[in-house]
Amino acid sequence: MSRSRKKGVAILGSTGSIGKQTLEVMKSFPEELQLVAIAAGCNVELLNEQIHDYNPRYVGLTRKDLKDTIINVAGQKVLFGTEALAEIATLQEVDIVVVATSGTVALLATVAAIKAGKTIALANKETLVTAGELVMPLVKARGAELRTVDSEHSAIWQCLIGEDVRAVKRLILTASGGAFRDYSLEQLRDATPEQALKHPNWNMGRQITVDSTTLMNKGLEVIEAHWLFDLPYQQISVLVHRESIVHSMVEFHDGSIKAQLAVADMRLPIQFALMYPSRLKGLGQEAYLDWSKVSQLNFTEPDLVRFPGLKLGYEVGVRGGTYPAALVGADEVVVEAFLKGKIGFMDIPALLKTVLGNHQNAAVSLETIQGTIEWARAEALSLCQQRRRTIFM
Ligand code: NDP
Ligand code: MG
């Protein structure tokens, strides 16, 4: 690729929280980045707006039944169905694929993009959580570049630049603690979806916002870090840091600790992944931390009794195989059930534990991951229905 050519970008999940922010970041770099393609699942209204505003050459919509609702303003090529994601991710004009879809819908597309030699800007957590064992060896074998967008992992990546990973004693992932960090066990039992969705520091999609309140998000991030940085679980720890200014840290064998600090704004790690190794000015004044407003930085050990999600993350990570896929599949269903008021907040970890207890581990392949997710979803759904009957009896 010639150095002067703009980098072609495809965004899978352009209508989501990360997808929208990626489009915003790209506005600051018209000389460096060129939007080639966007893809989404069912939010046709927003997709149509994005087609109008950003004029991508290719558009993907996985819901085939919504085909007739796409407005083709400038002769874009529109692709339909789940297979559209892989088609878009491997287009010749695309250099960087931003994987900003939720769940595992883009797993095959991500694998295809790695095989096609694309640079992957990976926001999606489920890819490495469920399939890190397949994806990371593939990345190495193909010499592909996988740049993380998740803020904690971006922080660790930034701390590790120029360092030898063998010098690392441990990674310290920080967690805001979510909306319920100060709730007692009693209060957690009665916590409502509205309360859970009010994240104190970040504005994110619904699933990840609820996952932050249970610390399940941090549990998944521990697994993500294990695969990304190739370190055992004993070398990955978590601290609750309520200010969300230190995005994560690396402690080295000599006792030094490197931390990455910045305002809590996902556009910064998105920009870093798109523009690496450049550190050009992207956001305006909001990118800069106002130290006059930072009076203290607090760090505490996570409470695994009130928030067992983190413990579950470690447990399934250590067990390996399809356990993480079972956790991801079940978590999607129980979080949705909680948001719909069908189960209580503390039912979330309890039901996840039951699903995991019923799971039979298997060796990881794209097929077993998909099969496990479907099994775990069905299992969790049935448990939620039973739970609901008990509540209303
Ligand atoms: P959102 O729920 O806001 O967005 C999800 C995106 O995925 C939407 O564009 C949605 O399209 C698309 N999508 C969902 N299902 C399908 C499908 N079947 N086919 C095609 N597209 C689909 O999620 P977030 O942006 O919050 O998160 C995305 C990923 O990034 C998650 O894995 C999350 O854990 C991770 N992440 C997010 C962070 C954040 O700050 N939000 C931070 C770090 C990681 P549509 O709505 O049109 O169906
Ligand atoms: Mg994160």
From TrEMBL:
Which Pfam families does this UniProt record tie to the protein?
Answer: DXP_redisom_C (PF08436), DXP_reductoisom (PF02670), DXPR_C (PF13288)
Q: Which UniProt keywords apply?
A: Isomerase, Isoprene biosynthesis, Magnesium, Manganese, Metal-binding, NADP, Oxidoreductase
EC number in record? 1.1.1.267
* Positions annotated to bind 1-deoxy-D-xylulose 5-phosphate: K125, S151, E152, S176, H199, S212, N217, K218, E221
- Superkingdom of this entry's organism? Bacteria
Q: Where does NADPH bind?
A: T15, G16, S17, I18, G41, N43, N124, E126, G205
| Metabolic or biological pathway, per its Swiss-Prot or TrEMBL entry | Isoprenoid biosynthesis; isopentenyl diphosphate biosynthesis via DXP pathway; isopentenyl diphosphate from 1-deoxy-D-xylulose 5-phosphate: step 1/6
Catalysed reaction(s) here are: 2-C-methyl-D-erythritol 4-phosphate + NADP(+) = 1-deoxy-D-xylulose 5-phosphate + NADPH + H(+)
Q: What does this protein do?
A: Catalyzes the NADPH-dependent rearrangement and reduction of 1-deoxy-D-xylulose-5-phosphate (DXP) to 2-C-methyl-D-erythritol 4-phosphate (MEP).
Protein's recorded name: 1-deoxy-D-xylulose 5-phosphate reductoisomerase
